[in-house]
Design goal:
This protein has 356 residues and is an alpha+beta fold. It folds into 2 domains: 48-127 and 141-187; 197-340, Rieske Iron-sulfur Protein (3-layer Sandwich), CATH 2.102.10. Helix content is 33%, strand content 12%. It is built from 8 helices and 12 strands. The chain has helices at 48-51, 53-83, 91-122, 140-157, 163-175, 178-183, 194-199, 242-249, and strands spanning 2-3, 10-11, 209-211, 228-233, 251-255, 275-279, 291-293, 298-300, 307-309, 315-318, 330-332, 338-340. Strands 3-4-5-6 form a 4-stranded antiparallel sheet. It has a 4-stranded antiparallel sheet with strand order 7-8-9-10, with no helix packed on it. The chain has a two-stranded antiparallel sheet with strand order 1-2. Helix 2 (53-83) runs antiparallel to helix 3 (91-122). The longest helix has 32 residues, at 91-122. The N and C termini lie far apart (70 Å). 16% of the residues are buried. Bound molecules: FE2/S2 (inorganic) cluster. Residues 282, 284-287, 301, 303-304, 306, 319-321 line the site of FE2/S2 (inorganic) cluster.
């Protein structure tokens, strides 16, 4: 037998009287039209916790244990935050902080989620009920009364009549959120122009291309055909803001057969004997483009699968990215090391509204 939560009466879902039409019997209570067949419900099945009190006790124990586990996870996360502070420029501290904080928060969410689901499935009331739906619209008399109230309020307040007061109030309400919008500016860098900051990286004329993360300079002779290197600018490891700088300046270096490269006239001289360097920051939303398919010469971003064709100046051939990866012009210095000719000629990473 099922239980109607609204009326408090027992009903059987398969009993057609439970869904008997009320159309026409009273206003606004129709649920199922008389020509729609009762779809029926499978018979109610009792759970083991409904019939065995010991099973119900066991389930209750599991539920509160999971909630206690969640509390322990939250406390652990707070303790981990204090025990592993993030030190400026120390990636190990950052990793430990993220790891233990993540474990604590995951445990906390897992405990609450699983506990709630288990509680609902094993212990909470399990009877089927029928909720009748009613039309949202009120009766004509209610609608008429509502209109009357609005009219009366309009007359008494003078909102419709005193247009100057009304319009100035609307103006004040529109202007009120503006200071809040302006305050968002404070989230950006305070002493620099954001478009300017996003448009330039550490690369400059003569900066050596060095291996990430060791900072060892790379010679052109080290780069064999088919190889790929993760590159950072010389001196990056000594910077206090190296993570911020690396997020813009990371580069992928590859060597292809020079005959395979399609180079546009304005980029003649930007590569060295088939060695090309492209920004590693995806132009979609900035993930590192870290996968190189040696056979097809495609670079793949693992986040949303944007694919860039190295042979054709890293133009987008698949995925949500809208523009090619920026190329870093390179050359070789007198000692045979690869160096940048300049910074990138366009902003790296995702597009932003003041790019050009
Ligand atoms: Fe690379 Fe989305 S960030 S495809």
């Amino acid at each position: 037998m099922a239980h109607d939560e609204v009326s408090g009466t027992d009903t059987s879902a398969s009993d057609s009287s439970a869904v008997e039409t009320t159309r026409g019997a009273s206003t606004g209570t129709v649920v199922i039209a008389s020509d729609v067949a009762n779809p029926g419900e499978p018979p109610h099945r009792q759970r083991v916790t409904d019939t065995d009190p010991r099973a119900a006790k066991r389930a209750a124990r599991s539920v509160y244990t999971l909630f206690y586990l969640s509390i322990a996870g939250s406390v652990f996360a707070v303790a981990a935050y204090m025990a592993f502070p993030i030190e400026d420029g120390d990636p190990t501290a950052l990793r430990l902080n993220n790891l233990f904080l993540g474990i604590g928060i995951a445990l906390s969410l897992f405990g609450i989620g699983l506990g709630a689901v288990h509680w609902g499935k094993a212990l909470m009331h399990d009877k089927e009920g029928i909720d009748e739906r009613h039309p949202v619209r009120g009766t004509d008399a209610t609608v008429a009364r509502a209109v009357e109230i609005f009219d009366e309020a309009d007359r008494e307040s003078g909102f419709g009549r005193r247009t100057l007061i009304r319009n100035s109030l609307i103006g004040a309400l529109v202007a009120f959120p503006l200071p809040g919008l302006v305050l968002f500016r404070g989230f950006g860098p305070q002493d620099q122009n954001p478009p300017e900051l996003l448009s330039h990286t550490m690369w400059k004329k003569g900066a050596r291309l060095t291996l990430d993360p060791s900072g060892i300079p790379v010679k052109a002779s080290d780069v064999t055909i088919g190889s790929v290197f993760h590159i950072i600018p010389e001196g990056l490891n000594e910077r206090h803001d190296k993570l911020e700088q690396k997020a813009k300046a990371a580069v992928l270096l590859m060597r292809l057969n020079p005959d395979d490269l399609n180079i546009s006239p304005e980029r003649e001289g930007w590569s060295y004997d088939g060695i090309v360097a492209y920004s590693k920051i995806c132009t979609h939303v900035g993930c590192p483009v870290a996968l190189y398919e040696q056979q097809t010469h495609h670079l793949l971003c693992p986040c949303h699968q944007s694919t860039f064709d190295v042979v054709n100046e890293c133009e987008v051939i698949f995925g949500p990215a809208k523009r090619a990866l920026p190329q870093l012009p390179i050359e070789v210095d007198s000692d045979g090391y690869l160096v940048a000719q300049s910074d990138f000629h366009e902003p790296v990473g995702p597009s932003f509204w003041e790019r050009s």
